[in-house]
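Data deposition worksheet. Section B asks for the primary sequence of the deposited chain exactly as it was used as input, without tags or linkers unless they were present during the calculation. Section C holds the resulting structure in token form. Section D is free text for depositor observations; keep each observation to a single sentence. Incomplete worksheets are returned to the depositor.
Section A, Depositor: J.P.
Section B:
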Amino acid sequence: MIGQTISHYKILEKLGEGGMGAVYKAEDIKLGRYVALKFLPASLAADTGRRERFIEEAKAASLLDHPNVGTVYEIDQTTDGGQLFIGMAYYEGETLEQKISRGPLPLEEAVGIAIQAAEGLAAAHEQRIVHLDVKPANLLVTPSGVVKIVDFGLARLAGRNENAPSGTFMGTAFYMSPEQARGEGADHRTDIWALGVVLYQMISGRLPFSGDYEQALIYSIIYENPPSLNCSPREASEELNRIFAKALAKNSGARYPAMGEMLKDLRSLKKNLVEGFSKPRLAVAVLPFANLSYEKDQEYFCDGLTEELINALTRVNELRVASRTTVFQFKGKAEDIRQLGGRLNVSVVLEGSVRKSGERLRISVQMVNVADGYQLWSERYDRVMKDIFSIQEEIAQAIVAKLKVGLLPEEKARLTRRHTENLEAYTLYLKGRYFWNQRTKPSLEKAIGYFEEAIGRDPNYAMAYAGLADSYGLLSLYGQLPLSESYPKAKAAADRALEIDPMLAEAQTSRAQISATYEWDFPKALREFRRAIELNPNYGTAHHWYSTVLTEAGRMNEALAEIHRAQELEPVSLTISVSVGLTFYYGRQYDRAIEQAKKTLELDSNFALAHRLFAIACERKGMFAEAIDQNRRWGDLTGDGVKTRVALGYVYALSSRQKEAREVLEKFRPEESQRKDLAPGVAFIHTALGDYDRAFEWLEKAYRSRSGALTTVKVDPRLDPLRSDPRFTVLLKKMGLDE
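Section C:
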């Protein structure tokens, strides 16, 4: 073809070739300029209807006028009518593919290129034109650094839902969105996905999804999540991974709703890279106050004072405060402040003591610099009990002042905010929280009694209602109170707390958890968790539980971003560490799940949930001996023999030890079948045995009993053999997980 003249174009050289045709550099004889001609496959010309639609959409693309969009001059065909070709502007420079072939791009440059590409695509989307083949080969970078989207050869008008025939793909496989991989309709969110893939590749030098053959690649795109990127500075990694979580969400409805929204985040990241991220937040740990009282029953008061200070300080944006769960692991332990600060990843530690005698109080507080162990500030408060609210406010304000943290007016108001003025109600609330944190059935029942007494003293005490909601929620979670009894009470308490104080993040978090675990209204739960985090971005529990619901909804990238944020807030939390591993597990990243289980067990070799995580990840890897061993270790630690038998039954079924698996089912006693938490496990065994009808019977039983273990049904790999069955689709729809 080189040297030939087609229409008024003289072909000069071949620029490249792909699955959708070859591109040549040509001279426009009439206008004396260089152009790029893309000759499309003959298959496009063979279908008259498709050819006409293609010409119509090429005309629409030619109307785009944007500095980051390569100009389309015309669409024509060879004189023999055999081939369609598109005439486009020719630009000097190199493709992004060529740039990436030399290695990862500097972060600032990569983000700058993504911004320009996003601007061009946003302009196209405004004209209802979707590109459908965004990839490095179609992004040209001129010598002056201008990005040109040079190929709208696959573009189509938005709203035209033309699926590719089964087994074929319009576009380039590595950059396909999950909906394209499934052969479903695509829209502007497909371009958002592809740009996310391109950005990931620019920064890391590798593709986020891969496979040795096409079907393996498709599986990776649909089910797997890319590793999080670690860049310098750390704040850039956090922003990037948040962007990837939104751009690469498996469900298109969970992605950025428009390219303009992604563009805002990219511009914000670029600004921070150029101007420098805002100064890192100071990290503070408030250690449990020591009880020096002659009255040894004052532990609740010391713990409550600690918790109140933590809650107050978390509402200051410039501070990162170690959570109660984190710091109370060190209660009563003599630790070197510098070593403790390193473990907690904080720069300042606050410690203190309380001596209470009747109504007299002596509270001593000191603030220590972790780097050198020197005292930054200390104070002693000799007061009476009725001054406790003022003392808390004074301590919190003194900490902020000594750390030279600037407060916004609303932050100052939150720092000194009182949830009650009733001292009796406050004391009862502290006792309730003290017993709630012990997490046993008797202690939770005591907690409920104290919270109810507190409400009796002050009917508008929102925090007491929040404590009541949390107590009923845990009683149900641990199987110690029927769901039908516990959750209506939990819901009523959380609703009342929010009615009194709509700004209370703790109550909003409790309400969100109720929406997810009891009502199974996952869209509502996600909205409520986002609201809770908006109210208090430093509340680790909200991030933790939000990540769980995101996982259950199949939004794995976002779930990982949230659980990592929770882990940043609570770095020594064993439960959150296991939740990180579970997120990897449900995202089909089994090696990373095993690695996370091992990390958790290094912190505490007797943490039962870590052994269970280890077991289920080993199951997916075919490491059956290890899975059996870890399941038995889990059973020994929990003392739940029935649950252990069910877990082992699944491993037996999966490893072709069908006789032993069926023996587990045969020994399942009638009273055991009433346990709602066991029903999904029995369904797993039947699934592995190929007894799909029985599996669905047990899934239905789990659904009717509102088993919390069923909420991962959408993402649980143990149920993969059932996913093509129409009954599975019905189950997801009933649970509100069909989006």
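Section D:
The radius of gyration is 30 Å.
The longest strand covers residues 9-18.
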